[in-house]
Amino acid sequence: MHSWLEKLIKEQPDLFVQAIQAANDGIVITDYQKEDNPIIFVNKAFEEMSGYSYREILLKNCRFLQGNDRNQSGIEVIRKAIKEGVSCRVDLRNYRKDGSMFWNELSIAPLNNKQGQITHFVGVQKDITRQKRFEDSLFLQSHEDPLTHLLNRRGFEEKAQSLLTLSKSSQFNVVLVMIDLDNFKSINDCHGHTKGDEVLVKVANLLKNNSRPFDVVARHGGDEFIALFAEKNSFSIKTWKMKLEENLEKINSSKELEFSISYSIGEATLPFLVDKSLDKAILEADNSLYKMKKMKMK
Does domain 144-297 have CATH number 3.30.70.270? Predict the structure, then answer.
């Protein structure tokens, strides 16, 4: 710290506190020397941003702002930075007192005493929700399938790489699934492309409703869908497939369509301990799918 700044803080501590309280960005200070790095100070901007008062969050760890949304790559970055005593910047989904989500651009840095020991961490927080929404709208324009509103192939590849990177650092396997509709050409030929589009949307919604926020589901092209599932939180691909079949049967039993929908499915695993490429896993799943289709034709 500059000597003039140290002198200013020592001579006019109230002025320094006023400056922090007047800042537009949320500022939080935690005690690094105490167990679980508890909050010891927040400014007014932080209170307004989060909806919590200082008294409500005093001595809590900042992780409470993520609620149950802990599967964020930025959280691991923060943990590593605090453990190593270095600065970092991440974007996180945080949750206000009323439960609403906001995007938080968080920068943290260690504070040292005169002996060079880390005593505290300071975090500067900026609400970037509007910016993120704008970025998301641009992303969707180029990464979303306009019919099903699932990711398109380009969107899938980007999201897939993010999930695979997280699987390595957090040590969980990923299951890749490919789904191809049976006799889709006949549906288009006999019932028209409008009805075919309706089928694609129904299957897309089926996949969306049977996935979690951090799973990656996409339309891979034509009548083919692809998905990546994180094998954690007791996830079982066998159970997932059974549930998907049950939900599809409900659609077929409802007689909404004058024909039944069916599909063939293939899968492959990407273990976090093995360096297997996404392309290789797709090829494995595609071969598995092809074998299933071949069996149905017998």
Answer: yes
